[in-house]
Amino acid sequence: MVRVRMCPLWPIHYVFMYLAVLGPIWLLSFEMIGAAAQVASKGSNWNVTYQPAKPDPILVDKDETIDVRLVNVAGIQLGPNDKLYVEYIVEDPNIAEVSTPVTEIPAESVVDTSFNITGNFLGYTKICPSINYFSAKDNRNTTEILTEEKDCLTIAVIRESTAIDKAFTYSVAGLVAIIYVNMGAALDMSTVRDTLKRPIGPTIGFLSQFMIMPLLSYAICKALIPRPDLQLGLFITGCSPGGGASNIWTLTLGGNLDLSITMTTISSIAAFAMMPLWILTLGKTIFDEADLTVPYSKIGTFAVTLVVPLIIGIIIRRFSTKFANILVKILKPFAVFLIIFIVVFAIYTNLYLFQLFTWQILIAGFLLPVLGYILGGGFALALKQSWRDTVAIAIETGVQNTGLAIFALRFSMPQPEADLTTALPVAVAIMTPLLPALLIVYQMIRGEKLGDEEERKDPLCQSTENESGIKTYGSMK
């Protein structure tokens, strides 16, 4: 029989075995915890305050002096050869830069210093201090970067407003107002009533314009544009009514012009309510991310400013037949002029836009109208609309009133957001004609032309006289 000799320390020897295995792990853990605690304590050695705490926006290419007070709450003691430095780290040097980023400071309980900052480009950036301590005794540097929100300063950089900037803003507002006056003067309710007898087309157009486009613009900006302030530009463009040359493209491509005119009229009037509705609901999420306050009063005022010129146009149509006819005749060429003016003048006035035209913005500006054409047309085909109605609905959905979007942004947003967000509707305005223009070239290559019957439907080629003796041609934007 084999006899097994038990360990004299049995069963206590299991405790020693566990200690032998786990002891080094425990010691390593304690060391890591101590190191983590030391790292976590960083940022508590200094308190930072700025004067002014919220500086006014800095102009591009201009300098601003910021006073800084550093409070040494840890009571760091320096030797005779030790050095203490503060470095100001700019989050985005493309927006602003510090002229002398590194400054030697005395080892006192309270240190008053300052730095000069220069604005480079529009936008926001943060400046966070970094305290560098050089110990001559140990011959080593210890760096403490203060990255907490309370320790950093947010800087806004804006452009200096010039006379040409004001001229652009006021001219866009004036041209949009004139368009709405002309629309009121050209509003032919008999054409609208005839089209509404078959309401499926206008209903599809309304849903495409104010359901598909706002949601589509929101999805595109979230997928492609990382900055919330720039997202606003695309979203508000997507919430705008159909506009620009929608009636002209519809006529040229052989669509149902009467339906296009009716949808233009309906969307322009509905925009008074639908634009503020989308901006104050889904758009509020973007405002919150951009740390901006929703300008409720300005949005309300903006909606009212659109109603007034439309009512003026209706009054002109009611009481001055001759003047109303003059306004109607110039409506189509004026709409084309408005598109060209906005794109050319916006680029000339705001050359900085090209620096904002990243590949994401260009793709977003291309996708919004093109997907609008596709989704609007697909929606119409799914509901078995005729080809002419489908063309009208697709064009009306994809062509946005970018002038109205620019006016809304300029009127409602503070600086620098008002300048930054303009890049998106301008990008959309540039990209919108590409697909219709390609289709027109395709028609020309194939030798296709619009028939005389379609040309006779052009409200600016044919006029009808209503019961009041007023010639009406339809409405265009």
TrEMBL record:
GO terms for cellular component: membrane. InterPro entries: BilAc:Na_symport/Acr3, Bilac:Na_transpt. Keywords: Membrane, Symport, Transmembrane, Transmembrane helix, Transport. The chain crosses the membrane at residues 12-33, 167-187, 199-221, 259-279, 299-319, 331-353, 359-383, 390-411, 423-442. It is found in: Membrane. The keyword Cytoplasm does not apply. Residues 453-477 are annotated as: Disordered. GO terms for molecular function: symporter activity. It is a multi-pass membrane protein. Belongs to the bile acid:sodium symporter (BASS) (TC 2.A.28) family. This is Ileal sodium/bile acid cotransporter.
